[in-house]
Amino acid sequence: MSQIVVVGAGQAGASLTAELRKAGFDGDVTLIGAEPVPPYQRPPLSKAYLLGEMAEERLYLRPERFYEEQSITLKLGKPVSALDAGAKTVTLGDEVLSYDQLALTTGSTPRLLPGAIGGDLGNVFTVRTLRDVDAMAPAVAEGAKALIVGGGYIGLEAAAVAAKRGVDVTLVEMADRILQRVAAPETSAFFRDLHTRHGVKILEGVGLERLTGDGDVSGAVLSDGTELSLDFVVVGVGILPETTLAEAAGLALDNGIAVDETGRSSDPSIWAAGDCASFPFRDARIRLESVPHAIDQAELVARNMLGAGEQYTARPWFWSDQYDVKLQIAGLNSGYDHVVTRNSGPATSVWYYQGETLLAVDAMNDPRAYMIGKRMIEAGKSPAPEAVSNPETDLKSLLRA
């Protein structure tokens, strides 16, 4: 009987194994996770879960009985220590599993602060796993003083939750502005104003020199000489694809595990999906970090492991929740040369163009702009910027044009 092993029990791994059964695979399926809990949602961790508004069981993508009913063997709390691509085996402690096909859905790991500048002090947190947030929760208390390192979406979401809990929050961003790597100045300005109105102190063009403390962090020295007294620190300086096993097995890497349009790696028996995989996209190779992508690519890989031969067409979209603002992003803005902003009452959207081609839309509390922009991008339509920026224009009419 054919054996499929999936390493990585996150969103991609859970989606892949479920799709294998849905597609009719009746061989052995094993899903291996380093964490001791079933696959769970990550986005609510730093929001509803940290705020105490969501119980742990509600984070689970599926109830545990689902895996038993679908004859999916869960091996949880068992990190894979070795992958032998030649022998087609994975090792978990003293257990060795054989596979006919293997999928790596190992996700990503957060960048950490170096120990030399205090990164290993107590109460210095990242926001990636259930364990991370459980450890952080007691520190996020009214009246506490926090430093958020990094002004990307992870840092801003952490700042929003901490501020809502009554924490005195300072956020530092080394770049000239928050969200510089991922958004236009107009979007950065929107979120800078939002956080400032909620009491967050945002310092741009300022880095962290070092953290101080004896055991637990108690302060920080910033690159401009500012000294802060602190109770805890949240580090949100990006993530890295988890490729340790792939590298040890000799798989081709390129900003992640390099896969082709079908999700197959340089080893014909090994596939990859989700945060850890880079794939061809518009004459380049990219890696996407989002829940929708993890689901879509993983389900396609499952079907291709069974011989479907489908090619992956990414339709990038993302979201972020901060205070009472829901940001929805359609498309990828890389290569944009100008933007237009559309203001319609409390709703705001930023539209990215390269020449006359619409690339992406950032929609803040504007689901209509997001949905129409997403449909336009997927259909290859590019409305005139002056029409988009005019609040009197009916966006739906542009979709019909």
Task: Give a brief outline of the structure.
It is built from 11 helices and 26 strands. The chain is of the alpha/beta class and 401 residues long.
Total strands: 26
Biggest β-sheet strands, sense, barrel = 5 strands, parallel
What is the architecture of the largest domain at the second tier of CATH? 3-Layer(bba) Sandwich
- Number of domains as seen in the coordinates: 3
**What is the assigned CATH homologous superfamily of the largest domain?**
FAD/NAD(P)-binding domain
**Which ranges are low-confidence, i.e. pLDDT below 50, for 5 or more consecutive residues?**
none
Rg for CA atoms: 22 Å
Kindly report how far apart the N and C termini lie.
Answer: 54 Å
Number of helices: 11
CATH top level of the largest domain is Alpha Beta
Remind me, CATH topology of the largest domain?
FAD/NAD(P)-binding domain
What strand order characterises the main sheet?
A: 3-2-1-7-19
Strand content is 25-35%
Helix content percent band: 10-25%
Average pLDDT metric: 96
Given the helix and strand composition, which structural class is it? alpha/beta
- What multimeric state do the chains show? single chain
